[in-house]
Amino acid sequence: MLKMMTGSLPTSTSLFLRPFTTSLSGKNLGVSISSVMANSGEPKESFGFLINKPYNPPSWALHLHPIPSQIFSLAHLPTPIHRWNLPNLPKSIDLWIKRDDLSGMQLSGNKVRKLEFLMAEAISHGADCIITIGGIQSNHCRATAVAAKYLNLDCYLILRTSKILVDKDPGLTGNLLVERLVGAHVELVSKEEYSKFGSQALTNLLKERLISQGRKPYVIPVGGSNSLGTWGYIEGIREIEEQLHIAPSMAFEDIVVACGSGGTLAGLSLGSWLSKMKAKVHGFSVCDDPDYFYNYVQDLLDGMHAGVSSRDIVDIQDSKGLGYAMNTTEELEFVKEVAAATGVVLDPVYRCAP
């Protein structure tokens, strides 16, 4: 939203990762893009989509290090900005919304901006498959599975679920349907195991297993939130600046965003601070607490040699309520009210509790 004015691991992955087949009715339903093969040079017809091209950063970000060398065009950009007349909005507030939910169908949302940089690096490293991890209905995992298939890469997903459901087939609901349609390899881990071992250890163990099978995996962290992925929303700030050129008298004073893994927040806050925009960025954490995210964002900034404190450039507030992807009746009623009044359907996973 834009507002104006480690413990030790077992040696066998079978102790905590539960693989499930990705074929439906005995048929492989993965997407095939014959005109674009990531490992076989430039396509005959690009039309500006699915192209790996050199990356040129904004002038105000040239001092950051390292600067990505390549970017893969995966998103439909620029995404529009329009006025958002929320119900009961105070008259003193002029509220606008940037529609990153329109960045592409299966790839929609903030994840695809990060994947443009992460997938480019995966290709440059000669990867033949992608590993990532998240919740059972992770939007990031869905977007990664689709992006990988677009680029002729296999995708391995480690999905966190409850202890009761971890040994059952995860089904075909929500994002799982898309992931399994495009042929992603799904493995389940319980929330307790996830908390005990951590996402990095779990993905590394799967990486070692795939390497032992002769594969060349590339690991993407939770939410695509590392220093490289942060460039996705540095680019997002440049895009907003370019959009504001058509209305030079307009300026955004605040940028408000939900925070689930920290990468989007880091990119927006650093980009706004470095650019002429200078809007204050506010993050509402839907999991973990503000101190965790201040420290995580700081690690991302340090990884880019930004030379700035996260606490100086972003305001983070606790908004997890019952917890990640857990909703109260009042929150779901608010989602319904906003959709009915404005046509914008909010994601209940990243809703912000009052």
Automatic annotation (TrEMBL):
Active site: S138 (nucleophile)
Any one Gene Ontology molecular-function term assigned to this protein's record: D-cysteine desulfhydrase activity
Family: Belongs to the ACC deaminase/D-cysteine desulfhydrase family.
UniProt keyword list: Pyridoxal phosphate
N6-(pyridoxal phosphate)lysine sites (modified residues): K111
Pfam families linked: PALP
Domain spans labelled Tryptophan synthase beta chain-like PALP: 74-348
Protein name per UniProt: Tryptophan synthase beta chain-like PALP domain-containing protein
UniProt-listed InterPro entries: ACCD_DCysDesulf, D-Cys_desShydrase, TrpB-like_PALP, TrpB-like_PALP_sf
Superkingdom of source: Eukaryota
Cofactor(s) listed: pyridoxal 5'-phosphate
NCBIfam families hit by this protein: ACC_deam_rel (TIGR01275)
